[in-house]
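Table 4 source record.
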Amino acid sequence: MTNPFDWDYLTTAPSSGEVLGPYSTLYLVIFFLGFIVAAYLYYRPWTRPVGTYVRRKTVRKAANIALWVFGTGTFFFLVRMLQINPFTFGERIWMYLCFTAFLILFSIFAIRFNAARKATIAERRAIASNRRHAARANPVKRPVRRRTQVR
């Protein structure tokens, strides 16, 4: 097998026998399912578990970014599968770059989701703690307001 990071390997279009290998099939599954999930979350941002920890606006913004990444990756796979090479879009380097964008996107989402989850848990604990230790307010009768006579 040739070096997958060799420049000549990256900038040549694959032959017809190399289109549906094990890695490209895995690539297709990841990017196609990612596109479907991102589209679902974009139109239903309140879905669990994402909607319970993060605001809807944030979910829609993240899903919009994910749609662009996964849509671009699916586009480059389709160009490769159709064996066309307009503007050198059939080269392997585009799939590598899309996969790198996916890894960056996944790591950023994981970090932010974890931070949002921790903040939500801390907020819930603070609210519960304040309820337990809050002084109970006893209702106090207000004095009757006296009417002043107008002369």
